[in-house]
Amino acid sequence: MNAVIPPPVGSEETALTVHEFAMRFTATPRGARLARRLVSQRLDVWGHPYDSRVNETMTQIAAELTANAVRHGRVPGRDFHVRLRETATGGGDGAAVVIEVSDTRDGWPSPATPVPSVPGPPSPTQESGRGLRLVSVLADDWSVVPRAGAPGKTVRAELSLRARRR
User: Fold this and answer.
1) How deeply is 98 buried, as exposed, middle or buried, from its count of CB atoms within 10 A (0-12, 13-18, 19+)?
2) Using the 8-state DSSP alphabet, how is residue 50 labeled?
3) How far is CA 142 from the centre of its chain?
4) How far apart are CA 15 and CA 27, in angstroms?
5) Which of 18, 80, 89, 109 could disulfide-link 94, Cβ–Cβ 3.0 to 4.6 Å?
6) pTM for the full model?
7) Across-strand partners of 96?
C-alpha cells in the first residue's frame, strides 16, 4: 500500500509509505506472540531477512510494545492494534521502519499526566519494568500519544534504515 504521509512541521521532504501492515490482535499473550511473529514475517517479505539488524531489532521492539499492550493496556473484550510501515523520503536519508501499537485502556496519557521520557531503572530484583527502557535504547525515536478517535494510547517507535552510528 502506498500513501503520502505529511512531513513533520519544518520538513521539506515528504515521507512515502513504501510498505504497510496493520492488524488487530486479541489482548492476550497469544495475541502478542502472533503480532511479534507477523511483524518479523512482514519485515522478511519486505526485504529485511530474519537475521538482519532491522528485523531482529523491530521484532524485539514489537515484543516489548505488544506485551505492554496486553499487560497494562488490556480491556476485556477489546483488541490491540499494530501498524507497521516502511517509509522513504525523496532524498533517501529518511528511510525508516515505524511500528505503532495501540491499546484501548482509557485515561492515560492525559493532559494532567505527563508522559515520562524513559522510566527510572528497575530494582535488580524486579521481574519486570525494563520494556520501555529497552525500546528507548533500540529505537532511534519513540513516543506515546493518545489514540486517535478512540480510547487508549498509541506507542510509536521508529528505526532508521541508515547505518547506525552507535
Assistant:
1) buried
2) T
3) 8
4) 31
5) 89
6) 0.78
7) 87, 160
